[in-house]
Amino acid sequence: MQPIRLIYKPYWRYFIIDAITLILSVIVVLWWFPLSTQIPFQKYSVFVTIFSVIWLLNSYLCHRYIPVKYMKMGKDIRRLLAASIFTFMVMYGYMWYHSGNNFSIWVLLTIWLIMFGMSVVFLIFKHAYRYALDADDQPIKAPKRAEQAVLKAPVLFDDAEKESLRNSMLEFATPAALDYLEKHVTLYSSNTFTLRSSELYNIQKLRNYRYDTLVNFMPLNQIRGVNKLFTTVNDKLPDDGLWVCCYEPQSVTKRNILHRYPPVLNWLYYIAFFLYKRVLPKMIMTSRLYFDITEGKDRVLSKAEVLGRLCYCGFEIVTERKIGDLNYVIARRQFRPQLTNRRLYGIFVKLKRVGKGGKKFNVFKLRTMHPYSEFLQAYIYNRYSLQEGGKFNHDIRVTTLGRIARKYWLDELPMLLNLIKGDMKLVGVRPISQHYFSLYSPELQAKRICHKPGLLPPFYADMPKTLEEIEDSEMRYLTMCEEKGTFKTDIIYFWRIFYTIVFKRARSH
Questions:
Q1: With contact defined as beta carbons under 8 Å apart, do 253 and 278 qualify?
Q2: What would the pLDDT profile of 487-497 be if each residue is shown by its tens digit?
């Protein structure tokens, strides 16, 4: 057992919060509470200063300013009680010693109660926040990957073994699903392992590189810790090994609910179901509590999220198909994923974009896409290519509300923060991702990184339809900046863009 150190480095955020709480408590009591004196701030100035010093000093000595990750909630509460009680006793003794100053016991008691109450609220919040961050849906820290083991030559099953295995799989998969898998993977082989389980242990117990194909017929909707599952499979498979999984997509869940209940009631039920099953699991303060209550059963998963999680966890999507109410995905192990901090999903999102000098910066936007969509950009481009205006054709990543927000530029309002920070200017080329940047010609790339991106891109002055036309539009703008100066060019383009938006009713895509 380590001895308690009297002197330690306090966590400065907790100290600042305590100081701010003290100031607010004093203002509330001396400003709004009825007191006998007409000059409460002058009369109680020394009293309040001593109270603040004693509170902060006792809190420090009671080790209240230690980061929460090193302290359990019960111990934190006990230390708050000790600091609070000792502060009250010291201040009460001070009032008794200076009884001639007529300090009110109610002033002391009220300030002390407000401080104690607000400290308890903050204490509960910080431990709840820590609890919420300690989620189990993150990749597992696996040991360093060994050199790929040489798989034994597969032994193909004979007809009797195939028939027996197929009949066993038909208990939890449709004939159409098995026909689809038989076309894309070697299903009846000694190097293929099939199961239907929501328990991670059944994957963890497999020997590394023993199988080159793993198939799980348990829908991902019933599995807690999808990222853990994917990264465990990633470590078990050899290079280019195949992983087959299935899930019920959000669209099917929505359709089933709307068909099951009468009109009006079905939409009310679906909205409540969506908030409970889709929103709460993504909010930082409710996600872990949600999974503790539901154990991750019957969760709602969109197609974009499942495919994005696979790409995030080191897989490449080979093919995917909807069969009945389930989507089946075949993915190939591509690389070992890099472990990151927990992924948080709020109404705002930070996106990495290429800025001036080729430096990456964060663009702030309203969230319009499903979770993990940022990892699907290359997949969407390769499968669906681009449509008119340079956006992805049939972009499954964008939500229904997201399409509405994009149409009226609501998603771009937070970029005003980038304008204030100086990362962007009012008129300029569109801030784009590294993948989209790589599609441009080397000449345009070189010109682009010489200028800041803008909130109003030249796109809305010319309204190009293809990637080549977009490149020509931006090239004309950047060339004019070099010839006539950036300030003059931006004024010209601002009025062109204003005319297009107001009179031609151009809309964001």
A1: no
A2: 999 999 999 98
Angle ∠(128,132,134) on CA atoms, nearest 5: 120
Separation between Cα atoms, residue 5 and residue 494, nearest integer Å: 63
Determine the number of helices (DSSP H) and then strands (DSSP E) in the chain. Answer: 21, 9
Domain boundary among 88, 117, 133: 133
Q: What band does 249 get if pLDDT is binned at 50, 70 and 90?
A: very high
Residues 6+ apart with CB under 8 A from 275: none
- For 331-386, the pLDDT digits (tens) are 999 988 776 555 666 678 888 899 999 899 999 888 888 888 888 887 887 776 65
Domain of residue 385, residue span: 348-503
pLDDT 10s digits, 449-489: 999 999 999 988 888 888 888 999 999 999 999 999 999 99
- 291 shares its domain with 358: no
Output the CA torsion 221→227→231→232 (10° steps): -50
Distance CA 353, CA 13 (A): 31
**Of 301, 333, 365, the domain-final residue:** 333
SS3 25: helix
What is the rounded (10 degree) CA torsion for 296, 301, 304, 309?
Answer: 10
What letters, b where the CB count within 10 A reaches 16 and e where it falls short, cover 197-207?
A: ebebeebeebe
- Cα–Cα distance measured from residue 234 to residue 230, given in angstroms and rounded to the nearest whole number: 6
Q: Where are the beta strands (DSSP E) in 378-508?
A: 425-427, 454-456
The reply to whether the predicted model has a pTM over 0.85 is: no
Q: Are residues 250 and 328 in the same domain?
A: yes
